[in-house]
Structures are given as structure tokens and as C-alpha cells.
């Protein structure tokens, strides 16, 4: 169950996703705002890439472009070398809010994602059962979303995202609204599930600990305009053990890159939970 694929395993695989020279702007009321600048990123099949960066640095926008929801950009977003032209069953997303349909049961919510699938009825039923089992929710198949805890609802959202066996699972702060304990549990669950499904995952998170625990690599972004400051490989020891030296060293390095004081110098520790950074940190830097 705790089999972990080392980062080195991906160095020989061809890139499944390539983002090249990506620039993205929005024009609002005649003013053009550059949101993403010169993004270059290659992700290999089966890799788990985590993305951290201040609010507003374009993380969600980047996921939307990978999904194919917005084609208005410069540069290239390629899957297996071909430009992404529209949303497809090969790419799915989980958001911070579960977005389940309240009038459908858990199993019907998961089944709804199979609407456009070419599977037979029996195959669809089997896929739903299998994915509810994968997220540990078989006993709740007939429950309604309102009867679930926040963590359980996110598990359903994860099952729904995976039921088509997508190549890419995009996760936009999927655990952001959960309490700390549920969040820690679901981090381990998510890691197990992604390994099991052999999905290529991109996770956006505000939680640096989460990014280091889950990723093979961590992308650190900077705002105004959003760009990649650096991409760091996450050593196996750091992924495996949240109390390891490797974990703490990498976490502190990422926090420093994000402009958060880690408390190792003379300055006071930042407020908020350890390992997290908030919009305020970014705001203060802007105001400074
Ligand atoms: N549809 C849109 N129209 C105009 N501006 C947008 C739109 N979507 C996002 N933005 C702006 O782009 C920037 C990046 O947003 P977003 O990708 O949501 O950042 P993040 O997910 O990193 O917090 C923000 O300044 C946001 O206000
Ligand atoms: Mg966002």
C-alpha cells in the first residue's frame, strides 16, 4: 500500500504534458493584465507535480489552460506532443469545493461523469463500484451529498474525477477547505490513490507541507505576472517522512522562495499554521 514511485523513475519516460513559452493575459474593462509569463514545464507520465505560489499568481488559470477550457494564450500546451484543443475525458479536475449534485446519490454523482464514456452499462457500473471502493466510500454509495462530511464529499469528487481513468488529474486546492486532521488523512489517501491509478497529477496547494509530501517535484511560482521561480525535485526521504531532515530542509527552502520567513534567522516566525502561507504574506510584500 505504501509503495512509492521514486522521482528518478520518471527521468527516462517521455513528457506526457509539455507547456512551452506560455503567456496568458486577461483584458478587463480595457485594461490588459498579464497573468502568466513564459511558463515552461514538462511533466512525465505518472509524475506527481505540485504547484505553490501566492494567491493570484495564475495557478488556477494554468490548470484551466491544461483542461482546454481557455484557448486564448500564447505559447503551447501539448499532450503527447499535440496541442490541447478542448476539454477531454483524459483530463479531469477536483476543486476546493466538491461541486457534487445535491439531488443525486454518491454513486449517481460518480456515474454522471461517465455520461460521455463509451463503456457499456455494466462496465460503467463496475467502474463506479471500483472507484467508490478506491476512495473507501462503498458503504455510502446510496447517501446524498448533504449526508457526507467535507472529507467524504471530497473523496466522492476524487472518485468522480478518476472514474474515466484520465491520464491527468488536476487538483486545485482540493483539500483547502478541510480541517487539519482530515486534510492530513486525505493527503495520504490521495497519494495512495494516484499511485494506484498511475495517473499523472498536478496539484495546486497553499500548503507547502502538502506539496512536499505529495509531489515528485514542486513548482514554486511568483506573482505579477505569474511565472515559475523554480522547480525543485523532492527527495524520496522528504516525501516519505514529514519529520525527516530532508522534508524540513525542503519545506524551509520553498517557504523562503515564497518570501515567508521560516524563523531560522532573527526575525519572528510568520503567523498562521507552520508550513502554510497566506494571501496576506503576498499582500504585505506588495505593500512594502
Ligand atoms: N476570467 C478572468 N477574467 C479576468 N481576470 C481573471 C480571470 N480569471 C483570473 N483572473 C485574474 O488572473 C489572476 C490569476 O488568477 P488565478 O489563476 O485564479 O490565480 P491563483 O489560482 O494563483 O490564485 C488574478 O489576478 C485574477 O484576478
Ligand atoms: Mg486558484
Automatic annotation (TrEMBL):
Coiled coil: none annotated. InterPro entries: AAA+_ATPase, ABC_transporter-like_ATP-bd, ABC_transporter-like_CS, ABC_transporter_ATP-bind, P-loop_NTPase. Residues 261-288 are annotated as: Disordered. It comes from the Bacteria. Pfam families: ABC_tran. Keywords: ATP-binding, Nucleotide-binding, Transport. Residues 277-288 have a biased composition (Basic and acidic residues). GO terms for molecular function: ATP binding; ATP hydrolysis activity. Residues 17-250 form the ABC transporter domain. Belongs to the ABC transporter superfamily. This is ABC transporter ATP-binding protein.
Amino acid at each position: 500500500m505504501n509503495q512509492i514511485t521514486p522521482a528518478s523513475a520518471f527521468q527516462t519516460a517521455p513528457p506526457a504534458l509539455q507547456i512551452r513559452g506560455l503567456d496568458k493575459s486577461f483584458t478587463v474593462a480595457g485594461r490588459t493584465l498579464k497573468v502568466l509569463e513564459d511558463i515552461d514545464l514538462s511533466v512525465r507520465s505518472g509524475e506527481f507535480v505540485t504547484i505553490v505560489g501566492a494567491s493570484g499568481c495564475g495557478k488556477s488559470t494554468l490548470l484551466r489552460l491544461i483542461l482546454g477550457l481557455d484557448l486564448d494564450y500564447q505559447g503551447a500546451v501539448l499532450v503527447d506532443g499535440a496541442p490541447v484543443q478542448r476539454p477531454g475525458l483524459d483530463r479531469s479536475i477536483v476543486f476546493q469545493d466538491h461541486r457534487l449534485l445535491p439531488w443525486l446519490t454518491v454513486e449517481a454523482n460518480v456515474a454522471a461523469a461517465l455520461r460521455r464514456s463509451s463503456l457499456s452499462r455494466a462496465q460503467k457500473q463496475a467502474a463506479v463500484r471500483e472507484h467508490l471502493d478506491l476512495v473507501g466510500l462503498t458503504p455510502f454509495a446510496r447517501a446524498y451529498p448533504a449526508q457526507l462530511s467535507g472529507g467524504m464529499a471530497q473523496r466522492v469528487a476524487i472518485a468522480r474525477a478518476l472514474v474515466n481513468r484520465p491520464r491527468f488529474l488536476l487538483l486545485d486546492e482540493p483539500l483547502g477547505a478541510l480541517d487539519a486532521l482530515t486534510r492530513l488523512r486525505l493527503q495520504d489517501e490521495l497519494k495512495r490513490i494516484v499511485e494506484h491509478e498511475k495517473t499523472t497529477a498536478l496539484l495546486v496547494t497553499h500548503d507547502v507541507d502538502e506539496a512536499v509530501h505529495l509531489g515528485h517535484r514542486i513548482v514554486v511560482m511568483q506573482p505579477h505576472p505569474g511565472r515559475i521561480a523554480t522547480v525543485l525535485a523532492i527527495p524520496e526521504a522528504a516525501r516519505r517522512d514529514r519529520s525527516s531532515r530532508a522534508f524540513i530542509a525542503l519545506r524551509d527552502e520553498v517557504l523562503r522562495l515564497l518570501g515567508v520567513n521560516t524563523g531560522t534567522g532573527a526575525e519572528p516566525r510568520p503567523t498562521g499554521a507552520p508550513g502554510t502561507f497566506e494571501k496576506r504574506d503576498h499582500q504585505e510584500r506588495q505593500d512594502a
